[in-house]
Design a protein that fits this description.
heterodimer, A: alpha+beta, Four Helix Bundle (Hemerythrin (Met), subunit A), Helix Hairpins, Heat Shock Protein 90, 6-stranded mixed sheet, 24 helices, globular, B: mainly beta, OB fold (Dihydrolipoamide Acetyltransferase, E2P), 5-stranded mixed sheet, 10% helix
Chain lengths: 762, 149
């Protein structure tokens, strides 16, 4: 009994896989037919797909699918024999019919029955189409309904399909064209002949994964053998180990390849999507696909399917204009949508280009303000590129009206999250009036990644190369001078920028270390090995005991007992067979408080106003000059300098100073914060200057006195109390204003933020 | 009409435990282990079981028994779970015993501590008592995350 059930389930599973594939093919061939690009075999292929579904469904007792399939089969049979001609209504009806079949199959897949939907109207449409042409031939007309009637006895939920009213049936054919004669070759092919795809077999994915694991093991065994054979004198053994080496490498590549699929597999459905969406919106869109054969790991293919569909829909809905608008803009009526995929630098690039209106940056900003994603002031400060990135914020949609096509609550933010989840990145480029391009970069595979192996506390750890920026080694003098402690928080000046440091030993509690211990260790070690990493747009230095090598590692998941530890992304097996943990750079950065615990995308100018809310941060406290205590995040400070008053010079209206071969503008913070009363003109001598650098430009902020550096959990107690401040906080029992550095710089030197689009940390 | 069950038995701190044999994938000798920093204390480390990475749980710590003394190495009892294999570290491995269901008794109400949570029941053997472990619960060490320590 149970085996019977299992068999039935297995058969149904096979039916589902086969039918979904068949229906995709059906769609493609239908579209080819519509464009007139079909071959003489096209109607046969279409017919066979449906015939197979009908046949299999019938065998499995799926009466509803069988009966629905049957009606279409009649029509397709007529099409095959050339009795009906290809018309837009016919194509539409047949595509809708394919969707109906899909719907039932899906319901079968998820709910284990064929669903309750009523397709009688669709079936009537199909019959009408069949009858329109069949009507002139007297015996054909009753034949179709009779054939249909056979299945009426089935106790299905659908309502009876009545034969079409005579008036409709006798309506003149819509297409007055001469029906094509039976196509050559169409008669000769048996309806259910096996397709030419016998050279391929279906393999269970689990089977492939198992193979992959075994190959991984073999690679390890190979490594050990090769290591042992190194010193051996036996030539036979050496030769054998070399052969083993080669074969294993080839086998590994071969097995990897079995998991790869061309991206064309997911693109195959886009012609249909484009056609439908464009049709719905009354637009004309031509889809061009380049690089169909670009291969990706199947896990990645799965993961990018939905994001890609969303971007394509978006491009047609928001990007490409209607024909009238296009004509007015001097473009051809038909919009172009180009999908392109290619390999580059070990990554897969996917670009979705349209020649539509581009992204309207003003409207994007407006929308973001309306939705409360940014403040008016923040929006004003954004560069075009930053503004463009607003579309990736959660809850953002530029559609003026929510259409059926896009704007259903899932937005570009989901696209971005999903792509980042698999280690990819997404970016938008827009040329107003000329179109926009969404660029996606994704890794080839998730299973095997290049990683840097480091040692700390006697254990090896793997760091995914994606997050790796550079390696820094400090010896003797450099070490003593390079690493500075700010109230116990170590920082390193990397080319003039302060890089927060964290010690892997300390973060992972590999050695019992306190701040004092740390300093002692530092003094003891011959050299400091630092791995500069990037997480969430922030850079930080990870100090490890030893940097070993880069290696391709096979990523394996951790058991549920260890899932809660954010610092690890998984584990891998090293060449000697031992397990090493893979560091999760973002998790580690969060653990070390380098980035905030919650990734907060809703804060677009994160780099500057960063973490003003409830987060632990290192702050520089200073007296602004009018007995006002102010603070700025230390991460924004490049240097603290003292200048004698006499070095102050003027360039036009601007006070400037010569600093390291540059002329940098000076801004007196006191002038820019709203306070009543005249500020004391006399600056103390020497002047205290906070050097702030961004994108190679520097500016000096003249302050009254540097007070302290503190690490505080800051919560904004009061929103902005005046210009030049972001809000007030209580630090060490005193009210302290957070200086809005970028606003002040903008006010004093509007040119500062021009010409460099990359102010957004993302 | 009594049914019989087979148990894989092992000892821990002088106590005699059993796990249903169907849940046990294999028993292997001590393996080199990679410690997992920040992990719950009862997680001893990770072992490489023919390419599969398996978490090893120190049953002594899990059951809040005193730590292992001397230099005898623990053994791995690898049990299957929905989440892949998990290894339980035990002192000594015993025989596979087949026991009649009639010998089963629910755990005494007076049982306290972790044992109450993890022991399913007791089989009265001729010369001693066999404590049956609930493997799902035993391996369910939800990591308190990196902030626990």
């Amino acid at each position: 009994m149970t085996t019977n059930d299992e068999l039935q389930q297995q058969l149904i599973k096979d039916l589902l896989i086969e039918s979904f594939e068949g229906l995709d093919r059906f769609d493609r061939e239908m579209l080819a037919l519509e464009k007139g690009a079909g071959t003489s075999d096209t109607p046969n292929i279409i017919f066979r797909v449906i015939h197979t579904i009908k046949g299999t469904a019938g065998c499995l007792g799926l009466s509803k699918i069988e009966s629905v399939a049957h009606v279409g089969e009649n029509l397709l049979s007529a099409l095959r024999e050339g009795k009906v001609s290809v018309t837009p209504p016919l194509i539409n009806a047949l595509l809708a019919y394919a969707d109906a079949l899909r719907e039932m199959l899906r319901s079968l897949e998820t709910e284990r029955h064929e669903g309750e939907a009523d397709y009688s109207e669709l079936l009537r449409r199909l019959q009408d189409l069949n009858c329109e042409t069949a009507a002139p031939v007297p015996p054909a007309a009753p034949a179709a309904p009779a054939g249909w009637g056979l299945f009426e006895e089935e106790p299905s939920a659908e309502s009876p399909v009545t034969p079409p009213p005579a008036t409709v049936a006798k309506a003149p054919p819509i297409m007055p064209e001469i029906e094509p004669a039976a196509r050559p070759g169409s008669g000769g092919t048996p309806a259910n002949a096996p397709s030419a795809a016998d050279s391929a077999i279906r393999v269970n994915v689990d089977q492939l994964d198992k193979l992959m694991n075994l190959v991984g093991e073999l690679v390890l065994a190979r490594n050990q053998i090769v290591q042992h054979c190194g010193p051996a004198q036996d030539h036979g053994l050496l030769a054998a180990s070399q052969r083993l080496n080669l074969i294993t490498t080839e086998l590994q590549e071969g097995v990897m390849k079995t998991r790869m699929q061309p991206i064309g597999n997911i693109w195959a459905k886009f012609p249909r999507v484009v056609r439908d969406v464009a049709g719905e919106l009354g637009k004309e869109v031509q889809l061009v696909m380049e690089g169909n054969q670009t291969e990706l790991d199947r896990t990645i293919i799965e993961a990018i399917k939905d994001p890609l569909t969303h971007i394509v829909r978006n491009a047609i809905d928001h990007g490409i204009e209607g024909p009238a608008e296009r004509r007015a803009a001097g473009k051809p009526d038909t919009g172009m949508l180009i999908l392109r995929a290619f390999h580059e630098g070990g990554q897969v690039n996917i670009e979705i280009m349209d020649d539509g209106r581009g992204v309207n940056i003003v409207r994007v900003k407006q929308k973001a303000i309306e939705r409360g994603l940014v403040s008016v002031e923040q929006a004003g400060r954004l560069s075009d590129r930053e503004a463009l990135n607003l579309i990736f914020l959660p809850g953002f949609s530029t559609a003026e009206k929510v259409t059926n096509v896009s704007g259903r609550g899932v937005g570009m933010d989901v696209v971005k999250t999903n792509i980042e989840k698999i280690g990819g990145a997404v970016d938008v480029v827009s040329d107003s009036g000329r179109g926009s391009t969404v660029k996606i970069k994704i890794p080839l595979t998730l299973a095997i990644i290049p990683a840097l192996i480091v040692t700390s506390g006697g254990e090896r750890f793997a760091i995914p190369q994606v997050s790796l920026l550079e390696l820094v080694r400090l010896e003797d003098d450099q070490k003593r001078k390079g690493i500075e402690l700010l109230c116990g928080t170590p920082v390193y000046r990397l080319r003039g920028r302060l890089l927060p440091l964290c010690y892997l030993n300390q973060q992972l509690k590999l050695v019992p270390a306190t701040a004092g211990q740390l300093a002692a260790d530092l003094a003891q070690a011959d050299a400091v090995n630092m791995v500069v990493l990037q997480a969430d747009g922030r850079q930080f230095g990870l100090v490890v005991d030893q940097i070993n090598d880069t290696e391709e590692i096979v990523v394996k998941p951790l058991g549920k007992q260890l899932k809660g530890i954010a610092c690890f992304a998984g584990a891998t097996i090293m060449g000697d067979g031992r397990v090493a943990l893979i560091l999760d750079v973002l998790g580690l950065a969060q653990h070390a408080n380098i980035v905030s615990e919650v990734r907060d995308r809703a804060q677009p100018d994160k780099a500057r106003t960063d973490q003003t809310v409830g987060d632990r941060q290192t702050l520089l406290l200073f007296d602004a000059g009018a007995s006002t205590r102010m603070a700025i995040p230390l991460s924004m400070v490049a240097r603290l300098e003292e200048f004698p008053r006499k070095s102050l010079e003027r360039s036009g209206e601007q006070e400037v100073i010569q600093y390291r071969g540059q002329i940098i503008p000076l801004i007196r913070v006191a002038d820019h914060i709203a306070r009543v009363g005249i500020l004391p003109e006399d600056l103390s001598d020497p002047m205290q200057v906070v050097i702030y650098a961004e994108n190679g430009r520097s500016v000096g902020l003249v302050v009254g006195r540097i007070d302290d550096i503190v690490e505080e959990v800051i919560t904004v107690k009061r929103e902005s109390s005046g210009r030049g401040t972001l809000g007030s906080v209580v630090i060490k029992e005193k009210v302290t204003d957070l200086l809005d550095v970028s606003a002040i710089i903008r006010a004093a030197d509007p040119a500062f933020y021009l010409d460099h689009p990359a102010t957004l940390a993302a | 009409m009594s049914t019989r069950k087979q148990f894989c038995t092992f000892s821990l701190n002088g106590l005699f435990f059993g796990v249903e044999v169907l849940r046990v994938q294999e028993v292997i000798r001590y393996q080199e282990m990679t410690a997992v920093p920040l992990a719950p204390a009862m997680v001893e480390g990770l072992i490489n079981l023919r390419g599969q990475i398996v978490t090893a749980i120190d049953l002594r710590r899990r059951l809040e028994l005193p730590p292992r003394t001397g230099d005898s190495l623990p053994l791995n009892v690898v049990v299957r779970s929905d989440d892949g294999a998990v290894s339980l570290l035990v002192d000594e491995i015993g025989d596979v015993v087949e026991i009649d269901d009639e010998a089963f008794e629910r755990k005494p109400e007076t049982l306290t501590g972790v044992a109450r949570e993890l022991v399913q029941g007791v089989y009265k053997l001729r010369d001693r008592l066999l404590l049956v472990l609930d493997t799902e619960r035993t391996i369910n060490v939800t990591s308190p995350g990196s902030h626990a320590q």
